[in-house]
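Hi support team,

I submitted a single chain yesterday and got back a structure, but I'm not sure I'm reading the token output correctly. Could someone confirm the output below corresponds to the sequence I sent? I've pasted both exactly as they appear in my results page.

Thanks,
R.
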Amino acid sequence: MSKTLTHTVSRTLLGLAAALALAAGAHATPKIVKKVPPEFPAEAARQSISQGSVRAKMNIEPDGKVSGVEILEAEPRKVFDKAVTRALMDWKFEPSGQKETHEVKLVFKNED
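Hi R., thanks for writing in. Yes, this is the structure output for that exact sequence:
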């Protein structure tokens, strides 16, 4: 390959890589406009569970409303899932005009 062709191909690949990085960054984090914190479940307190965490994925509609929540990871299992699902279903995001997903990790700690 000639130097000119190699330079043109390299520059095109760099431009493509930069465009992909910008596209990925543009959809990386939808802007939250309403965040509802989950309540600490009374059942967890009764069982002397004072802390935990849940990683969840939200399906976000083009208008910014959450249409579904999937629990990906929870420690301890099944203790905070309902509280997280209820809270995340009330979150609102800035409308993007397209369906999106967003993952969050919520940490619970009962100071009582």
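A quick pointer for reading it: The radius of gyration is 21 Å. Let us know if anything else looks off.

Best,
Support desk
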